[in-house]
């Protein structure tokens, strides 16, 4: 009997079960999705998270660099560079390469986060005006994401607006949803205009490390410029730079690493504890060499275009190393606490100049004035242009190269204007002459997207 | 002495003669091995103490009664019983004991006689583990038994080894087996942040914290029946490690010391010296510039130079003259052999001391060990200090308590591997010899290190070795206590609580002067990583034999396990004070973060064994596991197995077949699982927003993971059929066939990026592994002075993807699709070098017409299935020879078939596309030079963009190899010499590991990764060592 009791006791012990909550564990590094939008502070944190995706090295920093390295004025050394930017420079990208994949993936991460904000706001307890601000900022970032993508993955609007664009995602997508297919370039631009107009009209913001009202207007100007809607481009460019004044000539030589100046309208901020500085744009241009990659060089023919009195000539070292000049424009600050410019007033002047020149008769003075604002700032001896028509347009385009090199514009300017990518100088190790019709002028859709999404169509010229 | 025995026998004999009606029986006892008479065989009348032993020729004589039974016995031989009856002459042939079948082996939650075990398991003895010089025991399993694939992916001492049991049954999941030490499941995942395989190419194996000298034996559970009791963690096989336990009697003390020297196991690709490298570039420019030597020299030097710093290995500016020949005055200032600078003959030393002893009630085993092993690359080492105490006490005859403890401290220094600039291994292969180790000024060497080169700018592995730090210290405690209660005669209750804690303390420091830390004036990272596993296991065993023929055993058990991983990381930059790497001395704190990740497992299990008369065996097991990891709908899963065996040799109809000593047929079927998730996937089923998505000084969160409430275990359905035999008292073996279907594999299903995340964890894929395993061992020769045994194992596994959610998935250089295997290469197919212009060409298949053409544009090349990385078969062959006190053993490991993609070869055949990067010497003779040249190396062209070095079948090779895993020659000093020094044993030995390798593709070590792609890890090593073992 005694033994039996003992046995019973032991058996009970043996099968003494742990409570069900033994298996219910919660993470410490994440918030469960059901709780992620529960307060205004958390919604704002999701928006901050969207900026963090933009700052990801292989999204905006890289995208800005591709904007130059795929043109004629900047090239990357073929070695001593860990292979970075070599394929994009040489136009040998493959659908599997991270350059093409990460811009796509991270642009959609931004879009997903802002869509979640827009969707989730309804249930959040906060005043309507604050909600409008969050929506305006969200839609601004969404419009910007689409504007980036459409310039890289699709035919330019000016060349073929009915060509395939990118999928338009305005609501969170679930794995069970059918894979979205590509909208046309025109449809994507319609959404960009809609989002950016909402942002431009509603956003009240001036802290330049987040989307400012001015930047939203400036983005709208960029979008209209791409669409060759010259009147709107000029209008929004002027509105955008309202309240911003050009940096002085001396400031042009201060290293482009600090947003505390009168000209910058929008920038990415890197702080000490959240930083991937060795992949910053400045790292690749870094003249001090051992602080960064120092693997980008300036084409010798491009430097020759600057006049002797042009302050911007001093942004390019005169020695030739590895076939080209070293850039002095961007200072790669030790410790990497620095800002990356995304938009500044000079670009607005140049958009205005180009748009007014395109509008032709009656607009030429406005174009010449806007152009001269940029020229005279850099060169006291500059003379205001009296050109008109095509000549004036070409002068503006040349000025864009001189003013904005290194800031990520040239590739997209060549695209929207339908110009050939022509490299002839001795600096270049990949000589090219690619017309806009060449398939290489468009990035491939990432292979992973093709694999995961049966409704996705690859761009022509890339193996399936 | 012998005389005395004889006298006693004679006296005994005479007494017996006097006492009764006795009969004198005589005879000769011979050995079945050689037919010679055996001296010293004991001949005793059963049930008495009277008896005798055989003389030198094997003769005996004994007086008996007719009803007596004589028992003949001798150590290592099967005892024989013979009735005297009317016989007066009884000759006996002694057979060696069929040891294999009655061994007791460690199995899931207990032990079993090998004869009654119905599953598939292999046992490796501790002594065989020690025949390898491996730092970590799992490395020594290579070739030791069938069905276990071991790939040693790095020569870094203490780094992780890839172990796969019976093929690969996972797609994205963890496919490593479950490791159990003395009944406790332990962590085997690499948590090192400093030696992290994904980021730094090297790794730290948590298993290397265990001292192989403490291992008694290892059992590898291979089929469902053997492993199903481990349920949700068993699908990738289970490795049971049993450590040494105390033995009662006089305390035995053993001491061993071992010294070794290691070098690279195989020669690496032949690379150019500085002169050859310079000339290759010069010749190109000389032709380009129409014979203008000055321009050509200037271009070459410019290519080698980084901005501002000119690199010219010669003493004069234009080493090559107008005629294109080397100027007679030109002399190389230096010719840096980076491999010589980076690699060394590595020394190792190891000492172990152990004591084992006890009395009837208390038994103990204690040991201490110290190992210090250098890596062959500078800056690499591994040090281990370990202690162990296993103790048990019989409190009463029904109550027993005990404890097993291991404490170990390791320190691993790991120069980074992989593609990073700081990797000495990559540097030595990739940076050309035209760059000096030291700075040269005006033709004079200075004592300042040179950091200029066009490949890994601002790095110099020799200098950085003492400036940067990569250390990983582990403090590990593995402790388990148990109490065992026997009651009601047949019941046994055991409770075991265990605690496994690994404390990892790591330091990574980039100096402020050069390399990775320069741009932030130095960067220091400290990590504290703690993983703690607590578990409790309760088992109740009942075993009873009915009517002497029915034996039933029943096990009931319950287990709960809690695991917590905690990380603390601090990072700071701006090291203002030279000479310190302490974070307190910095100006800029950068990172401070902490988090934890937990998992919990709750389980109930049972096993039933039935044995009929030692002939028929049946067993069944069941386990129910609940896991915190999986989706809310699938937290609990059931796993089970059934198995049976038939010992045919015990049947009457087999008794005539004298040559069959044992024959057993067995079969099993069952379902196991695998939780297969890594530490960062412990919340993988939930929808999450991650913290730390900060921007501009603001805290941010971002959507990071899709929910999958249906997520569940990977399920393995396996069956196994085998025959085990022992024949002619010499040859024993197993022939086995298995088939495993791994279903519902955890799979990172790609999502459209428009969802915001690239993948979601699902259970979709299905993989099949089928295979044959053969193990044979033979005692070729056996007599008192010489013995020779051979054992051979052979495994062939066929891996096949049965289903996938997508038609095909391209994973790097591999394709996954139904019908092909997990490691099927899918890469561009090289079509040779165009003989007319020396360009590389690749095949293109027209999607519609399937017509095959060639292209010179790499991006247009089509990918083709190009063979598997998995070997067709692997085999291990071991031979042991013993002659008097000498013994010699060697083990050959064969891995046949399987392909390797040699990225190093590809990169070093860049043909000018990356000036400054090393080139293979075969470029000199084999590169295309003029129209009509037929070769597989294209023309040399500086800054070419023809992408020859991109991944293609040009660099895919058959990776068959044979390796002399180890060879040991030992000598046991005879006892008579030892007695006067009060020693009980003394052994001296010399040992070689990997000292010979045959490989089909040369230039890199054949063991790179299970995926068959080369890496920049430290090459595998060969080791020559010698040692001494001393017993008191």
Structure explained in plain terms:
The complex is a heterodimer of chains A (464) and B (1032). With 464 residues, chain A is mostly helical. Chain A has one domain: Serine Threonine Protein Phosphatase 5, Tetratricopeptide repeat. In chain A, 44% of the residues lie in helices and 8% in strands. Chain A is built from 16 helices and 9 strands. Chain A has a two-stranded antiparallel ribbon. A two-stranded antiparallel ribbon of chain A has the order 3-7. Chain A is globular. With 1032 residues, chain B is mainly beta. Chain B folds into 2 domains: 2-96, Carboxypeptidase-like, regulatory domain (Immunoglobulin-like, Sandwich); 178-263 and 344-422 and 459-823 and 869-901 and 960-1031, TonB-dependent receptor, beta-barrel domain (Maltoporin, Chain A), CATH 2.40.170. Chain B is 9% helix and 48% strand. In chain B, helix 6 (274-288) crosses helix 7 (293-304). The two termini of chain B are 26 Å apart. Mean pLDDT of chain B is 89; it is low at 1-20.
- Poorly predicted runs of chain B are 1-20
Number of helical segments with 4 or more residues of chain A? 16
Oligomer: heterodimer
The greatest interface between two protein chains, and residues involved on each side, is:
A-B, 99 and 103 residues
Enumerate the strands of the largest sheet of chain A in spatial order, edge to edge or round the barrel: 2-4
CATH architecture of chain A: Alpha Horseshoe
Structural class by SSE content of chain B: mainly beta
CATH architecture of the largest domain in chain B: Beta Barrel
The total strand number of chain B stands at 51
The amount of helix of chain B comes to under 10%
Major sheet attributes of chain B:
22 strands, antiparallel, barrel
| First and last CA, distance of chain A | 78 Å
Which descriptors apply to this entry?
heterodimer; A: about 475 residues; mainly alpha; Serine Threonine Protein Phosphatase 5, Tetratricopeptide repeat; 16 helices; 9 strands; about 10% strand; globular; B: about 1050 residues; mainly beta; Maltoporin, Chain A; 2 domains; 13 helices; 51 strands
